[in-house]
Amino acid sequence: MGVEPPFFEKYKAILQSSTEKEKFSTIEVFEEFELPLIDLSGLNLGPFERQKCIEQMDKAAREWGFFQIVNHGIPGGLLDRLKYEQMKVFHLPFDKKAEKKFLNLSAHSYRWGNPLATSLRNLSWSEALHISLKDISRMDECNKLRSTIQEYARKANLLAQKLAEHLAQILGIKPNYFQENCSPSSSSLRMNRYPPCPFSSRMFGIIPHTDTDFLTILSQDQVGGLQFNTDGRWFSVKPNPKALVINIGDLFQALSNGIYKSITHRVAANEEVERYSIAYFYCPTDEVVIQSCSEPALYRNFSFKEYKQQIERDVKATGDKVGLSRFLW
Ligand SMILES: O=C(O)CCC(=O)C(=O)O
Ligand SMILES: [Fe+2]
């Protein structure tokens, strides 16, 4: 029984019907870019170093919406163990992964490709296990997958809260905002696997998108492929084995009234090697209403639930997320 999702069968019709122009307009590739690298050990030094570290994060969140952190407090050994469990679960037979109650998680936790795609540029060559942390206590252990996720999620939650609080402080948002509005089970964790893709010049590993959260903590391997867009240009993020990548999500952009940027990013497909990444999406509980921290507000108030429902409707209708622009005044 094969491990790979049936990409070929599913995408055959779109690949065959795509125009010659679409087929031969290959995806542009850009130079690798070293994201700002912030050493979080500064937070535990004197007030001067601490302030400098917070200002570096603030600057990166405003200018790039992306930065990298080292000395973040998540042990390398834990990240290695998580990656090992991740590889094992993705190497189960496809039929098993696609079972309705796979690992006793909610329906659609295991996802692959983009079933709603209508054109070549909407196709993605990847599979993912998207775990709402609400489900974690009833998830099957599956070797040591569940317990390792639990261990990681606890640490990632504290790290995300700390980063969010430092950024919020600069914007004048009350210090306990995130403690009040987020809980360890309101966030989610997405494990991604990008199998080698024979059409790597024509489709993505993940199509361009912004993240639906306050911020994302991303652990990626050494393969590379993550790219982000600034002023219409695409940059590739150079992998750093010691660093975690942080990116601002839509909710922080709205909360900060557009000061922090939720940047469009994507993952390039790779013809030769498989790639793994793990994204921790730091989210509030569903009923939390996101309100801009300053006036005049760019966006109308919306609850997290309302935001997710709008995305679901847009994805159903067009195969793609519209996102924050729907909520502009
Ligand atoms: O795999 C990556 O580097 C990024 C994944 C990502 O953007 C996501 O899961 O939202
Ligand atoms: Fe993302």
TrEMBL record:
It comes from the Eukaryota. InterPro entries: DIOX_N, IPNS-like_FE2OG_OXY, IPNS-like_sf, Iron_ascorbate_oxido_reductase, Oxoglu/Fe-dep_dioxygenase_dom. Pfam families: 2OG-FeII_Oxy, DIOX_N. Residues 185-284 form the Fe2OG dioxygenase domain. One of its GO terms (molecular function) is metal ion binding. Transmembrane segments: none annotated. Residues 142-169 form a coiled coil. Signal peptide: none annotated. Keywords: Coiled coil, Iron, Metal-binding, Oxidoreductase. Belongs to the iron/ascorbate-dependent oxidoreductase family. This is Gibberellin 2-oxidase 8. It comes from Theobroma cacao (Cacao).
